[in-house]
Amino acid sequence: IEFGRFAVDKKIKERDAEKRTEHANLAEAVEDNKRAILAHAVEDEMFELVKKLEGLIGKQYGVDGFENLPKEAKWKAVEKAKQTKLLQGHYNDLVNGRPSQLLERSGIAAKI
């Protein structure tokens, strides 16, 4: 009878291990999906900032426009460039699977 009980315990442990593996795989898939959604949103925001930056510099002041910008426009251009650089870092973290402050702050990190 002990042998039968051992076999049942072993089956239960194997089934539990399979469920934990399935659970971990699901959690990983959910996080990958959330990362992709956030990366897409970050990418859209970067493109918008670049458009605004190009509009601020390129259209009004030509290719070498930054040097010719009024002080306030220079400040705006520098701020947009900083925002773009920050978003590039967030984007790289998201698409490369590295820890992401943006993912953590968004409250949608995988919690399955």
SSE layout and pairings?
Layout: H1 2-61, H2 65-68, H3 71-95, H4 101-106
Helix pairs in contact: 1-3
Structural summary, described in words:
The chain has 112 residues and is mostly helical. Helix content is 85%, strand content 0%. Helix 1 (2-61) runs antiparallel to helix 3.
Summarize the structure.
This protein has 112 residues and is an all-alpha fold. Helix content is 85%, strand content 0%.
List keywords for this structure.
112 residues, 4 helices, 85% helix
Distance between the termini: 38 Å
Structural class: mainly alpha
Question: What can be said about the biggest beta sheet?
Answer: none
| Secondary-structure element pattern, one letter each | HHHH
Low-confidence spans? none
Percent range for β-strand residues: under 5%
Shape field: rod-shaped
Number of helices: 4
Helical amount among residues, as a percent range? over 70%
Mean pLDDT: 83
Give the total of beta strands: 0
